[in-house]
Design goal:
The protein is mainly α.
């Protein structure tokens, strides 16, 4: 029912004949680079999340009180 080893070998030979070994190496290198880039982006995203969680902590600071002048609404006639 499943794919046998001989069927896989036949498919592999057909792919090598169609594309050639040089192109397959290039495709493999490009695919590996894409996977590496994806993993590094995921790692950077996790580090950014950790940094933003640290920023959510309570900040100790002095409170500066200032006087705010109240504006009275002007009477319109």
């Amino acid at each position: 029912m499943g794919i046998s080893v001989t069927q896989l070998l036949i498919v592999l030979v057909i792919v090598v004949v169609l594309f050639g070994t040089k192109r397959l190496r290039n495709i493999g290198g490009d695919l590996g680079g894409a996977v590496r880039g994806f993993r590094s982006a995921m790692k950077d995203g996790e580090e950014d999340n950790k940094l933003s969680e640290k920023d959510d902590d309570v900040i100790d600071a002095d409170v500066i009180e200032t006087e705010v002048a109240e504006k009275k609404p002007e009477d319109k006639v």
